[in-house]
């Protein structure tokens, strides 16, 4: 039956005009949380409360650690694989699967196919059919490991000191060690300060403890959303149009990121921002217009030269996982929100949406997700056809095609299908989550301090303790100078407006009541900056009949406002910057700011008077002038 179902998947994919490569499923990396539930291409792995690893489903090629390589075996009930296991990751390739586990002592062990050096054991293993190498028994790779992620032909691990190590096939630069052709058969250090790592098919992503997202590997298809930039172009020797660009070392992509999940196949990553927003971005291929039967229409557009707008998938998310295909397209994407609710969208051929009212719905998009259950703590998408979730009590719940991996879930719906020969057969599906009764999973400890975490400040998810403006923001909030742009965000990188800086200054000076009449035609009593604007006019900071609240605040005008608010004291010397003329209106203000250690310029003898200021910079200037 499992072979018929796999043949069916191939037929469906070919009918849709899709390429069907060997697939790899990376585990979603959640900082401070071990992976105790995951899926392979057609199998399930669970760690129980005794730290025992159990697996069921397709155990072919010895992936369960007991079946001889090359033997086709299937298990309908859990099989004990290993004791003293704290976390597990499976590559889930349909042809060359391998597995990595972290034991309770922090040691990393791997086994399975090793033709690409993906086990990290120096290339050890037996010859398998003359084209691959297989390691039948687990081998220890390294110690002091807190997290591991398996890609299709490479893997990465985070150690207790926050260092990231990777190994495997270096093509496309996916390992991140500067190489693009060959095998890295033992772990090599890639970077420090890493909190989360995730391996995709041909690229890797990591989130550092400062909340920055870094990526490396195949940059085609707008993978990094960085304007098609790369550091290497692989030239195809015979077919130039098959040449591709890649990034062989880590490059920074985004700020304010909590976690990342590199989907399988050829898709772009899912990025979980620090405020709980789950985002991705369009693929280059998704920009090509297609007819209803999948034929490209018109010319392929040029690759984007600038980052494309982020596509918001959902809000208040804590974790995400998916099956094959694109994040904005078909198959299945499942995510859990902060309230514990589990949502899913995508394919429904095998009732993967978990809703009996939608058994006749073929698929849904990210704009119309289905809520499957409450109180979920973990979820895994099993290949093309099933889903399994964990609740806080460790209970496991399955739905979708359960003929192969149901583990006692018999199914409540028969779906008629045709195999690759056209023969009709029935697939037993479960249209609503049903509990797996013969095993209980361990709920991973979300407070495991051995894995690096992102420390925020003042209740703001976008302010980290390592930010240069962190102390300034905390001071500004405590002094009621600002309360942020929302309850959980400060927006430190947003450009500061004239209204904002003068409001900051007004609050920093005690929020005095203005006494003069309103001189501005564009300032109303209902404006949040009304009193600040009138105070600024009384103090001589601004003049004229129009205020211009939304005008961007420059470095020159910032220093001038602060200098005038301080009483326009005469500086002892002149501003020694190449780009600050002695007769400039703001020259004395800049000189005063330098004397007060408010600013030292922007480098290379420049002050950059016309550069705009961010909210983080403004509160830092105020803190240096008034808070120390």
Structural summary, described in words:
Strand 29 (386-390) and strand 30 form a beta hairpin. With 628 residues, the protein is mainly beta. Mean pLDDT is 83; it is low at 1-26, 325-330 and 446-452. It starts with a helix and ends with a helix. The protein is built from 7 helices and 34 strands. The chain has a 5-stranded antiparallel sheet with strand order 5-6-7-9-8, with no helix packed on it. It has 2 domains: 25-291 and 301-341, Regulator of chromosome condensation 1/beta-lactamase-inhibitor protein II (Methylamine Dehydrogenase, Chain H); 456-627, no CATH class.
> How widely separated are the two ends?
72 Å
Task: Look at the helices and sheets and give the structural class.
Answer: mainly beta
- The CATH homologous superfamily of the largest domain: Regulator of chromosome condensation 1/beta-lactamase-inhibitor protein II
Beta-strand percentage range: 25-35%
Cα-atom Rg, whole angstroms? 28 Å
Overall 3D shape: elongated
State the total count of DSSP E strands: 34
* Main beta sheet: 5 strands, antiparallel
Which descriptors apply to this entry?
about 625 residues; mainly beta; single chain; Methylamine Dehydrogenase, Chain H; five-stranded antiparallel β-sheet; 2 domains; disordered N terminus; elongated
Secondary structure elements and their pairing?
Elements: H1 2-15, E1 37-39, E2 43-47, E3 53-58, E4 74-82, E5 85-90, E6 98-103, E7 108-113, E8 126-128, E9 132-142, E10 145-150, E11 154-159, E12 164-169, E13 183-191, E14 194-199, E15 203-208, E16 213-218, E17 232-234, E18 244-254, E19 257-261, E20 270-273, E21 278-280, E22 311-314, E23 317-322, E24 332-337, E25 342-347, E26 363-364, E27 370-373, E28 378-382, E29 386-390, E30 396-401, E31 413-418, E32 424-436, E33 456-457, E34 460-464, H2 470-478, H3 498-508, H4 530-538, H5 555-565, H6 587-595, H7 615-627
Antiparallel strand pairs: 1-2, 2-3, 3-4, 5-6, 6-7, 7-9, 8-9, 10-11, 11-12, 12-13, 14-15, 15-16, 16-18, 17-18, 19-20, 20-21, 21-22, 23-24, 24-25, 25-26, 25-27, 28-29, 29-30, 30-32, 31-32, 33-34
Helix pairs in contact: 2-7, 3-4, 3-7, 5-6
């Amino acid at each position: 039956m499992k072979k018929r179902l796999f043949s069916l998947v191939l037929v469906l994919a070919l009918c849709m005009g899709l390429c069907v490569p060997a697939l790899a499923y990376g585990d979603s990396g959640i900082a401070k949380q071990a992976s105790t539930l995951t899926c392979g291409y057609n199998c399930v792995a669970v760690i129980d409360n005794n730290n025992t690893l159990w697996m069921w489903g397709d155990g072919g090629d010895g992936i369960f650690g007991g079946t001889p390589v090359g033997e086709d075996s299937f298990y309908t009930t859990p099989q004990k694989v290993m004791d003293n296991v704290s976390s597990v990751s499976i590559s889930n390739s349909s042809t060359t699967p391998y597995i990595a586990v972290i034991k309770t002592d922090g040691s990393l062990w791997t086994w399975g196919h090793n033709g690409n050096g993906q086990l990290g054991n120096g290339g050890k293993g037996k010859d398998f059919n003359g084209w691959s190498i297989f390691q039948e028994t687990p081998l220890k790779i390294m110690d002091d490991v807190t997290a591991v992620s398996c890609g299709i032909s490479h893997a990465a691990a985070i150690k207790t000191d926050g260092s990231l190590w990777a190994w495997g096939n270096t093509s496309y630069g996916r390992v991140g060690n500067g190489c693009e052709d060959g095998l890295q058969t033992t772990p090599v250090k890639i970077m420090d300060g890493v909190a989360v790592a995730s391996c995709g098919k041909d690229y890797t992503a990591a989130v550092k403890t400062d909340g920055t997202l870094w990526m490396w590997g195949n940059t085609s298809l707008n993978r990094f959303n960085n304007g098609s930039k790369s550091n290497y172009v692989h030239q195809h020797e015979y077919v130039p149009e098959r040449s591709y660009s890649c990034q062989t070392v880590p490059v920074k992509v985004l700020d304010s990121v909590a976690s990342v999940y590199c989907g399988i196949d050829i898709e772009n990553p899912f990025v979980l921002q620090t405020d709980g927003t789950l985002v991705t971005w369009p693929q280059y291929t998704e920009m090509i217009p297609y007819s209803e039967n999948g034929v490209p229409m018109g010319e392929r557009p040029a690759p984007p030269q600038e980052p494309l707008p982020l596509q918001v998938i959902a809000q208040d998310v804590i974790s995400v996982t998916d099956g094959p295909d694109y994040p904005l397209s078909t198959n299945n994407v499942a995510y859990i929100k902060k309230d514990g609710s589990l949502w899913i969208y995508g394919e429904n051929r095998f009732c993967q949406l978990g809703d009996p009212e939608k058994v006749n719905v073929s698929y849904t998009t990210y704009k119309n997700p289905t809520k499957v259950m409450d109180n979920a703590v973990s979820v895994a998408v099993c290949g093309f056809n099933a889903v399994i979730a964990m609740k806080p009590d460790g209970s496991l719940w399955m739905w979708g095609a359960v003929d192969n991996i149901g583990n006692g879930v018999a199914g409540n719906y028969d779906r008629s299908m045709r195999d690759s020969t056209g023969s009709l057969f029935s697939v037993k599906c479960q249209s609503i989550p049903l509990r797996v009764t013969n095993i209980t999973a361990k709920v991973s400890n979300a407070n495991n301090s051995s894995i690096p975490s992102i420390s925020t400040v003042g209740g703001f998810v976008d302010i980290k303790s390592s930010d240069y403006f962190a102390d300034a923001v905390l001071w500004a909030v405590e002094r009621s100078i600002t309360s942020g742009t929302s309850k959980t965000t400060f927006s430190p990188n947003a450009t500061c407006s004239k209204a904002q800086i003068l409001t900051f200054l007004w609050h920093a000076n005690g929020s005095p009541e203005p006494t003069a009449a309103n001189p501005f035609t564009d300032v109303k009593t209902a404006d949040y900056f009304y009193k600040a604007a009138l105070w600024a006019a009384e103090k001589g900071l601004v003049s004229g009949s129009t205020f211009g609240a939304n005008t961007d605040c420059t470095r020159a005008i910032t220093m001038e406002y602060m200098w005038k608010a301080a009483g326009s004291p005469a500086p002892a010397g002149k501003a020694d910057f190449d780009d600050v003329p002695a007769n400039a209106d703001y020259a004395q203000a800049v000189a005063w700011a330098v004397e007060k250690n408010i600013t030292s310029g922007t480098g290379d003898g420049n002050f950059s008077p016309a550069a705009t200021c961010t909210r983080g910079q403004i509160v830092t200037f105020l803190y240096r002038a008034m808070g120390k």
